[in-house]
Automatic annotation (TrEMBL):
Zn(2+) binds at C28, C221, H246, E250. It catalyses: tRNA(Cys) + L-cysteine + ATP = L-cysteinyl-tRNA(Cys) + AMP + diphosphate. Binds 1 zinc ion per subunit. It comes from the Bacteria. This is Cysteine--tRNA ligase. It comes from Candidatus Kerfeldbacteria bacterium RIFCSPLOWO2_01_FULL_48_11. The lineage of its organism: Bacteria, Candidatus Kerfeldiibacteriota. Keywords: Aminoacyl-tRNA synthetase, ATP-binding, Cytoplasm, Ligase, Metal-binding, Nucleotide-binding, Protein biosynthesis, Zinc.
Amino acid sequence: MLQLYNTLTRMKEPFTPLKPGEVSLYTCGPTVYNYAHIGNLRTYIFEDLLKRVLSSNEYRIKHVMNITDVGHLTSDADEGEDKMEKGAAREHKTVWEVAEFYTKEFKNNLADLNISEPDVWCKATDHIKEQVAWVQKLEEKGFTYITSDGVYFDTNKLPNYGKLTGQKLSELKEGARVEKNSEKRNPTDFALWKFSPKGSKRQMEWESPWGKGFPGWHLECSVMARKYLGETIDIHCGGIDHIPVHHTNEIAQVEAVTGKPFVRIWMHGAFLEMDKTKMAKSGENFITLQTLKDKKIQPLSYRYFCLGTHYRKRLNFSWEALEAAQNGYENLCALTAGLGEPKIGCAEFEKKFTDAVNDDLNMPKALGVVWDMLKSSNPPHAKKASLLKFDEVLGLNLKDAKPIEVPDDVRKLMEQREELRKQKKWDESDQLRDEIADKGFRVEDTPAGTIVKQRRRV
Ligand code: AMP
Ligand code: ZN
């Protein structure tokens, strides 16, 4: 049975959706003012693995992802610039052009990483009317107040505010950023609608009952999740940075209006780090998928790299670790290609694999099962059949793995080398390895067999 860790209850729970056989899933999408970095992409890979595991448990999924194209400010404390307007100024383009460009780039990243797209993409700017209507509902219920720069949610009015963090409101207030906006009643209060600043013209702004402005970032996810998935949704995901502010506020806005639980299971992916610091778009350790491609690292090697660490554990990035993952992935492809046609799988390993992925997506353990199976004495056709099944969850495109073309002279050298190895004539077999390398190929002996690969051109 599938077990998932729920941030809300801080426990692994057996999963059952609200509607039998069907799962509603909302995942926070990108703020499209810049390229996604590989840290962001780690979170999207985790969410894709979740979808694949749900599918392997025969659930149908309705997946909604937003595109944040307005209202995400540079500070979580409702201050600072709108990231989108800042991006537009940097690139001397309109905000709309910037949003379109980076949305396209993001979708290309998803395709490169074999991440399936959501059933519904929704943009914040396409849902202004719905967001204004939601603020009106909150206003009618007495949850809002107005300051000189916007309409705010009064977090003191909602019992249970902050339940996702496991902290009391008083603790959250202490931890909240100290701000210049002294008109806020509580440090945890947040903007639902921000007024356009006086004296400067924003590219994106709309009329509202409270004045010209734009919606707060948290509001879009609440409103669009509810619109496309209903009042209570099964699973909502994002990175762990979203727990204390963004997701906490999404819950507050919805539950204040509906009085019902907004989300049943909250799932959060841990950070990709570099030198113990979170990878961030504003930081210097900003690596994109293109940076990897420029260094001849295939995007799917990065996916394989991510599979090696559980999604709730921090993952430290280093070029050496990534190259090792690329080598592991290439070996897996080469071995898969050499297995011939699939026929009846290895039941024992398939069971172990399912148990691992159903245990809160334990992908490192699942990869261990893959390699154990390859090393086992099962016949090649059975290994191939199981690998193809595993790959429906792993998403590593193993079905497309092709044996590399090896010229006859190299193949002969390989056969001779194999013979020498059997006779334990290591020095001579190493000499042949060098001869093979001179011809542009490299052989690697793994516990699952000998692999031949094209020599890397660096
Ligand atoms: P953003 O485009 O900044 O809104 O972030 C998109 C997603 O990436 C969100 O779910 C974030 O929580 C997540 N995220 C941001 N930084 C990292 C990181 N270093 N590692 C993993 N996920 C991250
Ligand atoms: Zn969101």
